[in-house]
């Protein structure tokens, strides 16, 4: 089969790789009909390369048609249409039973000391072949895949694999009070959905984003927007009775622009041999923290900062004095996808499309054109916000 593979920093290519096969009784093989490029994929493309191996198959936002199932999979049969959550969870361990599927005890990557395995996401999360491919082996298919109907287009359902539940969790974690204001930093795919989810739940939403096309998309959905400037905290306070928003979602993460110190650290790590670079990422501050620090500055005293953007360094400097003085609450973590999918499924199937899932994709290309699409997405060229690949 054809699959998009990692070849090196800023280098991916479509190659012929072996077809997947059933390996465990709980496996399924899915023929991929749509798969998306995620902002998190850019971390592998750029920063987390030391944890990648040449030829690794990328992608963690797939959906498709079940081709075959293992002997223990009774909830699916060939021909079923499914969305595949990005994290692999068993559904029966203590963590899964408590809504923490991203920490699944069955699929935790103990060698790396990390949480549940993730499709297509490096040694850190199990080196499981990903879904930017023609076919995908799905472990724990007796629990993970979300069965969907056959009448609506893929884009109605595709984002249930990651970015929509990630946005939903980010807003839930933000704990915006009734009548409160939510600020969302970053209007990439997760930021777009976080803004719309906040609006859907009845909050006032102000989104912060430097790219005009991304602000325009959010404004189509009734979101107030402002540019990201050095005084954005003052701007947000002026818009919220001098206090600042009640909660802030950071939907950007470790590769924020306008962060020269973080950019220097990331580029320096990229020049090191892999073994040394891994240790540097695990123990040093390699994140671009401009946005996170702006979130902490902007949120009102006693407010909440919810992190959905991915951060990678373990020694990134944080303004703890400010956080303590302002009595800021923080929540964060990989999305527990299966915790939210039953709640979200009827919303994405609503004929009125209240979260605008049909107004996110800006580029659709064949799998063969994925390498160029990665470049376009990373550079934010051609109004690129969300790329859907068609194997």
TrEMBL record:
GO molecular function: oxidoreductase activity; zinc ion binding
InterPro entries: ADH-like_C (IPR013149), ADH-like_N (IPR013154), ADH_Zn_CS (IPR002328), GroES-like_sf (IPR011032), NAD(P)-bd_dom_sf (IPR036291)
Pfam assignment, any one: ADH_N
Keyword Transmembrane carried by entry: no
Cofactor(s), by name: Zn(2+)
Highest rank taxon of the organism: Bacteria
UniProt domain Alcohol dehydrogenase-like N-terminal: residue ranges: 25-143
Domain spans labelled Alcohol dehydrogenase-like C-terminal: 189-256
Keyword entries, A-Z: Metal-binding, Oxidoreductase, Zinc
Entries under PANTHER family matching the protein: DEHYDROGENASE, ZINC-CONTAINING, PUTATIVE (AFU_ORTHOLOGUE AFUA_2G02810)-RELATED, ZINC-TYPE ALCOHOL DEHYDROGENASE-LIKE
Entry's family note: Belongs to the zinc-containing alcohol dehydrogenase family.
Protein name per its UniProtKB record: Threonine dehydrogenase-like Zn-dependent dehydrogenase
